[in-house]
Amino acid sequence: MGKASDAVSGSSDPDVEDWVRSFRFPESGSPELPPHHPNCLGCGPANPHGHRLSVRRCGDGVHAHHRFDSRHVGAPTIAHGGAVATVLDDLFGFLLYTVGELAVTRHLAIDYLAPVLLDTPYTLRAHIHARDGRKLHLRATIENDHAHVVTTATALFLIVDIDHFLTTTHQPHHR
Ligand SMILES: CCCCCCCCCC(=O)SCCNC(=O)CCNC(=O)[C@H](O)C(C)(C)COP(=O)(O)OP(=O)(O)OC[C@H]1O[C@@H](n2cnc3c(N)ncnc32)[C@H](O)[C@@H]1OP(=O)(O)O
């Protein structure tokens, strides 16, 4: 696995620095992709409130099987749109393993085409639609067991260096 931490220069938060130091990009032949970190809301196995998303490579992209449950309810029997967005944002976050770069969400857009039902199996897929320098243009779908796409998403992720996670003085950006 490739290390992301060669440029670590120091941090005010030892937990963050530990995470950065231990972050690894899996080998390109490895189908299983590791969680971003143990407590990640999307994929961390140690987060009791999390989705525990398990993601694999699929061709040039990634895919996952997922069921939303009663913790994610919006209207009765239907997953909350914010929970769906969380899972899609995290799924996009797995594409960074396929490019071997650290990247974060700059823009996320979701089309809710049909309700995402609780306790129902779905297949999630994401891929890199285009790369333009630091800009990763990403696309994803959620599909039900009848191969109907119920949700689509696009995102712009921006490649960042390790200092993005180490600094505590981020300023807001305005476009
Ligand atoms: C690696 C580990 C990952 C771990 C977990 C993954 C979990 C899932 C992903 C996440 O949830 S990440 C957490 C949520 N995201 C953030 O906290 C990011 C907060 N935003 C920032 O820190 C900064 O805005 C960011 C570093 C993303 C960008 O700041 P920059 O100053 O580096 O970039 P800038 O805003 O100047 O934009 C760079 C380029 O993108 C363009 N751009 C920005 N927003 C755009 C937009 N909405 N549409 C099109 N282009 C856009 C912008 O015009 C510009 O184009 P040019 O370089 O060509 O001039």
Automatic annotation (TrEMBL):
<dbReference type="Pfam" id="PF03061">
    <property type="entry name" value="4HBT"/>
</dbReference>
<dbReference type="InterPro" id="IPR052365">
    <property type="entry name" value="THEM4/THEM5_acyl-CoA_thioest"/>
</dbReference>
<keyword id="KW-0378">Hydrolase</keyword>
<comment type="similarity">
    <text>Belongs to the THEM4/THEM5 thioesterase family.</text>
</comment>
<protein>
    <recommendedName>
        <fullName>Acyl-coenzyme A thioesterase THEM4</fullName>
        <ecNumber>3.1.2.2</ecNumber>
    </recommendedName>
</protein>
<dbReference type="GO" id="GO:0006631">
    <property type="term" value="P:fatty acid metabolic process"/>
</dbReference>
<dbReference type="GO" id="GO:0005737">
    <property type="term" value="C:cytoplasm"/>
</dbReference>
<dbReference type="InterPro" id="IPR029069">
    <property type="entry name" value="HotDog_dom_sf"/>
</dbReference>
<dbReference type="GO" id="GO:0016787">
    <property type="term" value="F:hydrolase activity"/>
</dbReference>
<keyword id="KW-0963">Cytoplasm</keyword>
<keyword id="KW-0443">Lipid metabolism</keyword>
<keyword id="KW-0966">Cell projection</keyword>
<dbReference type="GO" id="GO:0016020">
    <property type="term" value="C:membrane"/>
</dbReference>
<keyword id="KW-0472">Membrane</keyword>
<keyword id="KW-0276">Fatty acid metabolism</keyword>
<keyword id="KW-0809">Transit peptide</keyword>
<keyword id="KW-0614">Plasmid</keyword>
<keyword id="KW-0053">Apoptosis</keyword>
<dbReference type="InterPro" id="IPR006683">
    <property type="entry name" value="Thioestr_dom"/>
</dbReference>
<keyword id="KW-1003">Cell membrane</keyword>
<feature type="domain" description="Thioesterase">
    <location>
        <begin position="78"/>
        <end position="147"/>
    </location>
</feature>
